[in-house]
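Dear support,

We are seeing what looks like truncated structure output for some complexes. This example has two components. We would appreciate it if you could run it in full and send us the complete token output so we can diff it against ours.
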Amino acid sequence: MSKTITIDGKIIPFEEGQTIMDAAMAAGIYIPHLCHQPEFTPHGSCKLCTVKVNGRNCSACTFPAMDGQDVLSETEELIDDRRKITQMLFVEGNHLCPGCEKTGNCQLQAVGYHLNMLDNHFPLFYPDREIDASHPDVMIDQSRCIFCTLCVRASQQKDGKNVFAISGRGINKHLIFNAESGLLKDTALEATDQAAHICPTGAILIKRTGYQVPIGERIYDHKQIDQVSLASSGSRPDEALPPSLAVETEHVKHGE
Amino acid sequence: MRQFIQDIAENNHYQATHLLQILRQIQSRYHYIPEAAIEQLSDSLNISRTQIISVIEFYSFFHLTPKGQYELLISDSITDHMLGKKDLLDYLADKLAVTVGEVREDGLVSLDNTSCTGMCDQGPAGLVNGYALTRLDRPACDKIAELINRQKPLNEWPAELFQVEDNIYKSGLLLNRQIKQGAALSSTFSRGVKETLKEIDKSGLRGRGGAGFKTAIKWQFCSEEPQTERYVVCNADEGEPGTFKDRVLLNSYADQVFEGMTVCAAIIGAKQGFLYLRGEYLHLHDKLQDILDQRRQNGLLGNNIQNAGVDFDIEICLGAGAYICGEESALIESLEGKAGIPRNRPPYPVTQGYLGKPTVVNNVETFLAAATIAVNGGDWFADIGTEKSKGTKILSISGDCARPGIYEYPFGTTIQTILNECGAVDVLGVQVGGPSGTFISNQEFERKLAFEDLATGGSFIIFNSSRNILDAVQNFTHFFAHESCGFCTPCRVGTSLLKKQMDKIVEGHGSAGDIVALEELCQLVKNYSHCGLGQTAANPILTTLERYLGLYESQLKEISFEPGFDLDGALETARRMANRYDAGAHLAQTESEHE
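Here is the complete output from our reference environment:
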């Protein structure tokens, strides 16, 4: 007998060592998330994937699946609170979608759509954070960073470079770059690095590619993030990257 | 500087786990961490510069830009405020001609606020270059200003400025009975370690940090782990505002605390222990080091302790100003030389703690109790207290009472008894367990000190009826926003939102919906935060909303909506630029004000 957990009443098999998120994704169940990508060590910081496990709130991306767990995910309470957590991420930074070139390809925005977020709810912080445009091919707008550390992890775990780190404490957290000057141009980052493409928001952008795909034809202009997320976590490895990233990587490869 | 840093790195065996200790020495010498030092350390410790910078920027006592040669910090605890801290800070700033939060132009002195320094029974308190200053008043400030302006080295400052008293007013089971050095170990070895664990189990001892996990079970879990390299950590990072008992225990009962750690090591099979001492208690460091040396000389630490075949030693690691490091997994991260960000659990420290190895983390008081139980047996302890809370609890009492200090009470004692004995009159309420605990009103003084009623790590702050509860709540809420590590969204953003929302209400900009919004936000932060800090950060608001709703409501304007910011205030810059101060250059906050 294989081991199982229950998510919203549905019985799901899992293998030893899998998290609740792993098991859910394998079974085609989407749990909203931003700081998680299956190929990297789970981080558990955005808290969007919070589910109720036997009555207790846990992060699905880090909490191990255990036989007989009763997991609640799509309850009214959890959906409402995930929306509020998303709103927190919006007000903390400067996420002004109409003026952001990531619009339509942005996972933060797409999660907002998915959770039916219609306003900011909380007062805006309007942080005054730095922009680093020193690098010839990549620019970083810190005011859109949500501290998911995907770039940190991708640079360490995939690119073998360790370009990024999160520094500071509390609301003063910020991204730093591994160069004596502190500038992106002096790091080992290249536009082809996975770290340059993994940002779920518009904090890390590849220069001169912003509007190659017109607004209206972008990923989340047509698809819900749950469909995209489940498709990209599917078994075929060439589909591991969401289409937008695949497209962007293509452009970079061709030097456009 | 190169040689200086080279020597420090060498003394620390080029271990990246010692990064905090290394940075402390550099900060102490240069009053900041220079860029060149970061580059050099990155090479010699073989870690990235970003890792070093992220540690510097995480801890309050490290700085990337120069602070004054005299770094002066004044404690911002509510208890210091109650003793006139604000007035004193202004006075000091005036005397020293320095702006709070800045460095004086000549670089001689910097002045700033800091979170509670654990001197609540003898405040207003502060720190100068890390050393505790107590009982500050205007004459003391005059003296300090003069000493600084004459550039007197700290060792020539009068000792009374640094005088720290124990203030033990009531002793019980633990404080009454100083056990003889080595007695707990010889009892343990003659009884047998397994039997001693049974005694600790029988005693019913639960963790004294506040969470109350059963000590014997924690030790047993750790001893059963397949990994044989194990660690004992004593959590002396007491940062909860209003708590200072560990300061006293380490000042006067350190031998027993170390002995408790050694008993634990013998039981779980650990060879290395750490005392994680909060940076604010730097004044205790040398004394504790001497006690460790003495214990080594007496064969109570080191190889083959008491000829029982047990090897164990203890290292003292100083923190650097981060409340979050009181959380056990954040503390372990800090011990490893990293920013104190709580880990994901499971795995718990008993299975994967320091360097991924099984680790027991306990409070100072827990180790003290364990040592005493090892001598006197479990029943002796379990006879006192309530069904679920055995033994006694050592309280740090501060605020409005005649005799603030240390009191040891059996669990089950009523709050009223405690208030009577410390000389508290006309009491409005008590903050039990510090900001992360519960505020109780004067209708609840028959409640009891116990895990099953009022659990506490030891903080006990008394407010009399001259106090405004909302001032305290505001102070606590700012504290949590300042101390949030920022790892998870609900706490990072939520504690800042709570601060804004609380300020809005207290400053009189609140309107009808704001209390509902406040409570909703509290629940969100409480239910979704990653660790205990976020899960309790809303407690000051929630526990007072429950009891004093009317007080909150009286702060509200009687309109249905009030913007979260001061409309007219926001126009000030524009008015200045346009040099217009006529009525037309002003904006009313709401339409009703126009009418």
